[in-house]
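Below is the data:
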Amino acid sequence: MQTLVVSLKHWPARQPLFFLLLAGALWFALYQTLLPASEALVAALPVARDSHLGGALQFFFYDTPKVLLLLTGIVFVMGIIHTFVSPERTRAILSGKRLGVGNVMAASLGIVTPFCSCSAVPLFIGFLQAGVPLGVTFSFLISAPMVNEIALAMLFGLFGWKVAALYLGLGLFIAIFAGIVIGRLGMENYLEDWVRAMQNSQAPAAVQASGMSWGERLGHGFNHVRGIVGKVWIYIVLGVALGAGIHGYVPEDFMASFMGKDVWWAVPAAVLIGVPMYTNAAGVIPIVQALLAKGAALGTVLAFMMSVIALSAPEMIILRKVLKPRLIATFVGVVATGILLVGYVFNLVL
């Protein structure tokens, strides 16, 4: 029996490729079961699925394990990648780029990553962990939830290519502009101490060595999961719980009643309403369609949409473990300014 336990303990190191394939298959299978499992959990409770409470519970049961699975998988992969490319090498590559090139690259990468704001945070942490400059990581954090292929495809289907293209251009502008501004402000001191220590620490000799075994690389990945997921999981649970409550109980009619373009404060009011909410692009666009059907202005509604998926309160709760309040406030202020500009431009042009 003892021989079997020892054999299982060292199995990942002896069969790393098979272990990674099996782990990836299990991760994917778990991810695919999240939606039906969340629906089954709500169905097992004495709660109507179409009630406010039923919708909030289904949202919580689905998004909490989804974000935790994404966080675990991405941090594990980043831990393995870190054994091939040290933070110092990553910094050297990016420092050779012209001003703004890194921000353009990060924002463009965000287009093809269909994450909601909370799901994008694991990659944000991973970029910081790899030594990517702060402003570049913010360009990705903004672009990933706000400008992705799901949002663009649904906007194209509902409103045509002109609206989708304008949204793409202005969304990328916000992500790139905000990242450059935050990078120029030099606010690295407002990262939490554990993140700064992770950035500034020299990679251990075993990580820098090219002759590491796959067993050592897998061990490094597991250590990163324990270190990072162990620090932020409670913030994820609290953030999704807040988002679920708001998602289930805020009525659409309340927002549509003042989201026209007849008054100047409609756009900032829509942004303020959108910030506490939490959903991804695919989840918020049907709400956008319903609001437009009730007479809301397109620019006002899209500003609301951007604030929901790029500045959600649950995202701020999760980021609080990584960023100090002043940096969070700067991030919110810069991005909100860009979103207000988008709202007013849409209302003016369309």
